[in-house]
Amino acid sequence: MGFDWLWEGQNLQRLGAGLWLTAKISFISVGLSLVLGTLFGLLMRVKQPLVRALCRFYLETVRIVPILVWLFVLYFGLSEWTGIHLDGLWVCVWVFVLWGTAEMGDLVRGALDSIDKHQIEAAKALALKPHQVFAYVEVPQGLRRVLPGAINLFTRMVKTSSLAALIGVIEVVKVGQQIIENTLLTQPDASLWVYGLIFILYFVVCYPLSLLASALERRWEG
Q: Around Cβ 36, how many Cβ atoms within 10 Å?
């Protein structure tokens, strides 16, 4: 009954290993997306038309093509076309970074572009140089405006990591499915308890991100 299945065999250890793999994929992807996405957002503001067109093309391509398709192309297609076989974990990381960089870049661009132009002009009137305007006017305000969207994006990346199971990565959802299959005959209601526990695990991973965002917002408002 209930969570009895958790103590059978090595189910608890397997879930822990699956959760660790999920966290590893998620937080490596989030970290790289944060850095690369910020740089991409700044690149999107370049006045050169060709650069902006290429950035827009990249952004729209990533948005239009489903993440699952990117996973399949990189995992199955790359090995078929080139003979290069990448580990499923790193395929997930690079696909999520590809997606996260595009989305984070657009958030950064939007946050910086939304700053009142009069503030920029006033800073220039005070003889501040372009890098000083960026550091003292754009960055502080842009950071506050980009935070809610960035936290939402990072939470979505953590949850989307469950797609890794479709290319054979044994993350926490895949482990849960295996446990359900192994205990289905002895515990018909195992799926309820297994997925219930996975729900709690995802909540434990994602909720601190929301708490961090709230804490930063309160600090800045204060």
A: 17
Check if the beta carbon of residue 190 is closer than 8 Å to that of residue 5: yes
Percent of the chain with pLDDT over 90: 28
pTM of the entire predicted model: 0.84
- pLDDT score for 108: 93
**Which residue bears the tokens 């695990």?**
201
Contacts 24+ apart (CB under 8 A), 22-26: 22/158, 22/161, 22/162, 22/164, 22/171, 22/172, 22/173, 22/205, 23/205, 24/89, 25/89, 25/92, 25/93, 25/96, 25/161, 25/164, 25/169, 25/171, 26/96, 26/157, 26/158, 26/161, 26/205
- Tell me the C-alpha distance between 99 and 37, whole Å: 9
Q: What is the pLDDT of residues 97-151, one digit of tens each?
A: 999 999 999 999 999 888 888 888 888 888 788 888 888 888 888 888 888 888 8
Locus of tokens 């961090």: 212
Over range 155-160, report the average pLDDT.
88
CB neighbourhood size of 22 (10 A): 28
Angle between helix 172-183 and 190-221 (nearest 10): 160
Tokens standing for residue 213: 């965002």
